[in-house]
Every structure is written in structure tokens, then in C-alpha cells.
Amino acid sequence: MSIFDKLKFTGLSISGIQSVDEMTVYPIVGPSHDEIARPSTLKFRRTSNYGTMVFDNEDRERPAIVPSNLMARGPSAQDHAMSGAGLVEKGKSQSFDTACCIQQRQGGLLSEKDIEHDILPIGLRKAFLNPTFRAEKNMSRLWPSISDWLKGMDLKEKGAAHLRYFYGDPTVQKQLEDFSAEFEPMGNQIGAVILFCGVPVGIEIMPSVEHWMSYWKYLIRGCYGAELLRLKLTGKLKSSILELPEIPKGSSVDEVETFLNGYIQGATQSIVPILDSMNVVTKKVMSHRAGMSVDLIQVGNGGGDIVKYSDKPVYLSVVL
Amino acid sequence: MPRKKLVVPEEKKQLQIDSGILQFTPKGAYYESADEQAKQIFELWKGLFEFDRTLFALVTLLGGTGFSKGAMSHMLLSNPQISDKSLIPAGLSFDYEKNVIKYNLSKERIPRALKNLMMLLGREGFEKVNNSRSRKIIFDFIFDRDVNEIQGLFLNYKSKLKALLRHAFGKQDTYNILHGNIQSFVNCVGTKYKKYYPFVLYVFGADVGEVMKNKAFIRFPKIEAYYKMKEAAKAGDVAEFQKLMVDMPQRTVMGFRNTYKLPIELKNVYEETKVSDREAIQKEAAAKRSGAKVTVNYNNQDIYDLWKAFYFKLLRGEKENLDKITDAIDKTTTKMDKMDIGECCVIIDASRSMEGSEQRPLHPFLTSLCILSVLDNVKEVFYVGGHYIKTEISGQEIAAIIPYNQTDLWRGLIKAIQTGCKNILVISDGYENSIKGMFAHTYNYFKESGYEFNLVHINPVLATDAKSGTSRNLVPEIKALPVSDYKYLETELLFTQMLTNREMVKKLLVNKYQKLLGEKE
């Protein structure tokens, strides 16, 4: 039984494999949930206080989901990140007062202007798998983890728990853009399973194709790409690529086609037993609003958020 | 699944050059911002300039983008030319650089040519340049034309002309000229342009009353009408304005309408004013939204603009004129000068990344279609990735492919080899993810197994992270040919010889200079 079945997702399947250097992405395709507000109607408005992020849902018919650990970085103000996924009622504004500051020595509150978004890197997201830590109203609680996360990288700026030292570094920016662009969204794609050097590091499922199209770069670049780059910059991950299969000598053109198709099929299917072996434990309901709930779940040694609408799962974000 | 150590080949320390340097437009790509690309391309320009200034100047005679040529001309004008005539290569006149720059300007469309000249004013991120060569080029560009042409220039680009003239005259001479000092004007531009003294006054909005009493000066009726139209706009005299706007340039009329908030329907502006054929196709959607009935002559368009119009209509779900556009694509394709490289199969990368950047949507994919149009003797075409959008043309359902999904180009390679074709062309941005390296792996198998075929990789996208040159390779041993515009195939072929056969290429370019500019040693 795959993790999708265990979590009661229906109609999902793996569609192919994309593998570039150390990262492999298995696109997840499936049905879109039109009962969730479109991503374009969800607006980050401001930080109303240190540790409080405010979002508006301009859709008057449907509730919206703020992706888990969404970051907002803006000019001359303290950058922030959500401690988990957020729910916003239809046509309403919602403050999230358990958000974190991610720029230790910067004052000022964010407005909606010139904001850059990403999702926190895996290493930092793991801190929020502890429900007590997540629910704390302490805007500075992520700073020690950020300092640790930045350690060992030769960045242009350093000296404090500023996540933007990493994201704003010109070399890092270039590498993250190049990296994320190596991967391409597929038709009907709503999510992905992500692996580093063959080891699963995350599962992401969005409510719809449109949500995936809106947020995939924040995930592939800001979350997974950032973590992979950090591991490489700190020498904690050896460079490697998927070894391609030796085509049997003397194969005709048709045989080559059959052989390589078989290889791709096998490579695609190889994720299935891994997904089947994942155990899920629901730890805590973190919030519920507008007919939706955010549950914090444990998956293997990692975990993350599942959002249910009328008790049906519509969103999943898990780091492993 | 088994993995192996990633080995990154060492970068070679040598001049990196290919025709991508002539094909740059600062509009970014799916992967990279325009700034990143500009930085990279500037280094390549600098490399060639330092390698051989003559080659640097002469290659701009080849097909390339207006931006590249403008920036390269800026580099030439920023650096004084050598004063030793004996160092000028045989076959070239002493002032060949100036002639090349002027020739290139004359071949650009006016808006692009003006943008290139504006680079000399420190615009578009360039350093300001003002010397006798740059001044001469500006004056010749503006004044070396007949009365009709110069009036057209005024009506469409007055503010740019003003900026250019102020820059070239300098503060003191501008003051003198605008205060009636005709000699100052002649000293700057030369006697042959003296007749255009009133024109300069018009450009600066100075009083021409006194000067025009002098019968020696010609009249500029269209400019006079322009000022009347401006007065009518200022006074809010809508009836008079509407009378005068007929057949005036659309952008000028639109400017007055918007600035002075004249209550004239957009529809009327679109219907009664003048635009070029190219502007007509570009503004077709806006004109339609206004309710105007405009006719676009699709038969007088570049193939790229036709494909662009087709795809943009398709993506907007519009059906109107699709039949005319597809007819025009067929006719234009038939009329084009074809390139025959022998019977070939073409693999077109239709994966998501071929949709290009936000500033230039679909550019790589549209370029691929144009390259396909220019090729002769194509046995079969294989699209890899993409998905189909259906529409109806003249009662018939058709499906057009648009960039989508992942990149598994190796599938296209197998299909092409199955046809037995000896020439295989792959048009791709060189980014491969399903699985990275699989194309080269498949290619190597066939080559090592004795299959005989030539693979040519044409890359319509500039990539700053390319291992060499300006675009990404799919197979390490096969250098991608950067072709961001179907017109630049010749350019690319010459560039591939530049490093290995420098003198031969220089000779070819000198011959081209003599042919194009009609000059002999």
C-alpha cells in the first residue's frame, strides 16, 4: 500500500522520471481540486508584527491554502517564514502569529511590495516537525537553526542568522536558477517525489495543476535546490549522476528502443516500493478553519503537513 | 538505482567564440535573466575585440540582432581606431569601421537603429560616447535622407532625435544653433546638410517663422501639420484633431490622444492612422479589442512574425484570420531561400523550456519552426515533448503542438535513425532531464555500433552556463550551433571556421564588405 493510499489520496500516479546530476524528480500527476482557491487569489499582504504574517484570500467562494513554510523576503524589512501550512477562509484576511523571523539583525515590517517567495530549505523545515516548537509564538526561535544551516558555506555576506545571506548571494542565486530550470513541469502534474543521490528527501502534492505551476519553483529552487546546494558547498554530498544502462552490443535500432523504454519504465517504477515502505503517523491537528484542517504527520524519520478539505486530502508537504 | 561519480570536464582556456555573440537580445531565457546573459556576452565581445579588432568590426556585416550590432558598434566607437594606415588590412578603407557601422544602421528598422544610436548617449546600460566618429554617424543617420523620409523620422521619433542632436551638437552649439547661428549648424554637420537647418528648429520646438522667410530653405508640410495637430490637441479641438490625424503615424496620434485626454474612440485611431505592415500584425490584438476593423496584410510578413501571430492567436483561443495566417505561412515558406544540406530528419525539442522567457514568450520554439521552414529536403520531423492544442481552420480541425513536458530527446534520435536518414538535425536548447545524458548515451551507442549518420545540433537559446561558447551541447563532441534566428545560419557557418582559419574568414569578410558597401581598395 503506497503512502498515497495510506493518506487517502486518490487518482495519483507517477509520470516518468527526471534526473539531473544528484537530484531526481518523479512527477506526480492526478486530479485537480477546484474546491480550493486558485493560487493567484492568495496574496501575501504584510507582516503586521514581528512573527506575524498576513495573507488575504480574494476568492469569495473558496478557501485558500498557504504552502507550508512559505518564505517572504522583501526590501528593508525583516524576512519571515510560515511555521507550517496556513488556511485562509474565502474572502477573508488571516494573520499567522506563529511565523518566524529569518533575518536576525534587520528591522522593519514587510509590505506586499517587491516580495520574493521561496519555501524554507529541508534542513530548516525539519525544526517545525516538533509541534510544540511550531506552535510557539517566538519570532526568533529559528535563528540558531539558521546559523547552523549557514555554517561552512563561503558566502559573500556572513555574521548573523540571515537566510538571505544564502538566497541573496549572487553565485548561489545563479546556481539555484540554473538548477531549478533543469526540471520541467509535466501535463497534469500536481506534485513530485524528490530524491538526492537516490534517497527520498521530500514528497509534495498541491491541490491542482495551477497550484503546482505557481509553487514548483519555490520548492525545487528554494527548498530542495537550496538544500542540495548547501550540502554540496559544505562537502556533505558527493557529486554523482544516475548511471545509464549499458545497451547490449549488437542491438538493432528497434531493440535499442525497447531496451531504453524498459529502462525508463523500470526507473520510474523503482520509486513504488520506496513509497510503499513509508509509514505514516498522524501526530497532531495543528489548525482547522473553513472546513479544512492541517495535520502534522510523521513519515519515517521526517514528516510534514497534510491539508484535508471535508476530510479529503488536498495538499501534502513532507520532508524526509 | 546505480549511480556514479559526476566528472566535470576541465574548461579550456581559449577564446570562446561562436555566432551567438551576434544574436544576443537582452530578453532572457527560460533559465536565465537578461542581465546574466548580458554580462556573459559582453565578455565574449571583449574577447573577440582583443583577439582581432578587424574581425570584430567585419563580423557585424553578417546576419545578427540589432542589439548585438549596436553594442559592438558602441565598443568600436568607444575605442579610438589606430592611426597607422599601414595596419589597415588590404581591401579596406581607412574609415571602414565607420562605414560598417553606418551600413548596419541603414539595414536595421528605424526604431532599432535609433536605439543603437541612443547607446552612445549612455542609454540601455552603456557608457556615454561622444567623439568625431560618433557625431558623424549620428548626423549622417539623421540627415542623409530625402525630405519625405526625414519628415517621417520626425513624426515618429521626435524626442529621440532631439536627444541625439543635443548630444552630438553639444551644449554650446545647440544653444547657438537654436538662436539663429546657421554657421554653427554647418560647422557641425557640413554644408551638404545646410538645407535641414529648419528641421533642427522643428525638432527642438523652436520658432521657425523667421528662417522660413528665407526661400533657400525647403518646407516640411507634414511637420507643419503635426504642429497644427498638436495645437488642436492642446486646445481640445477634437473635430480639428480628427481631421488632421488621418494618415498620421498611429503612435504619434495615440500619444496626443492619451496626453491630452481627447475623447476619441480607440477604434477610430486604429482605423484612420498609419502603421507599417509589421506594426499592423503586432498590434492586431489591441486593435481588435478596441473594436476597430483593421486589415492586416499577412502576405507581406516575416515567417517568424507569422508563426508568432498563429501561436498567440491559438493560445488566446482566437480563430479569426487563422486561415489567412496559415495560408501566408505556406506561401512564405515556399518563397523562402532554402538551405539544402541533403536529405535530413529533424528532431524538434518541444519540451517546456522551449517556451522561452516571459519577455520573449515561445521564442526558441518559434525559431525552431522557422529553421524548419528554411530547410529543404526534410524527410521527416519528430517532435519530442509538447502537447497539442486543437482548433478549427476553415471547418477543419487541426492540432498544433506547444512546448510542454519533460525532455527525452533520445526518443527522437531513435525515431530518426529508424528512418535511415544520414543527416539528423536536432533543434534544442540542450537541457535534457529525462534522463540527463541519455541522448549522448544513445548517440554513442549508435556511433560505436557503426551506424553512419551526421548529427547537427542547432541551439536557439543562449546559455551562460554553457561549457564552451554561448549555447549548451547535447553530445560533448558535437558543438551546438547557436542560431537564435533562422536568418543567421550563414553567420554561424562562418563563425565555426573563425578560430581555426582566421585569415580565410577575414578574407571572406573583406570580400563581403566590398560587395555590400561597394568599395574597393
State the main characteristics:
heterodimer; A: 320 residues; alpha+beta; 9-stranded antiparallel beta sheet; 4-stranded antiparallel beta sheet; 19 strands; globular; B: 521 residues; alpha/beta; 4 domains; 5-stranded parallel beta sheet; two-stranded antiparallel ribbon; 23 helices; 50% helix; 8% strand
The DSSP helix count of chain A reads: 9
Rough shape of chain A? globular
Radius of gyration of chain A over all CA atoms, rounded: 20 Å
Number of domain modules of chain B? 4
The rough form of chain B would be described as globular
Order of helices and strands of chain A: HEEEEEEEEEEEEHHHHHEEHEHHEEEE
The percent range for helix content of chain B is: 40-55%
Q: Which structural class do you get from the secondary structure elements of chain B? A: alpha/beta
Instruction: Please indicate the percent range of residues of chain A in DSSP E strands (runs of 2 or more).
Output: 25-35%
| Strand segment tally of chain B | 8
Total domain units of chain A: 1
How far do the termini of chain A sit from each other? 19 Å
Question: Could you list the spans of chain B in which at least 5 consecutive residues all have pLDDT below 50?
Answer: none
Low-confidence stretches of chain A: none
The profile of the biggest β sheet of chain B is:
5 strands, parallel
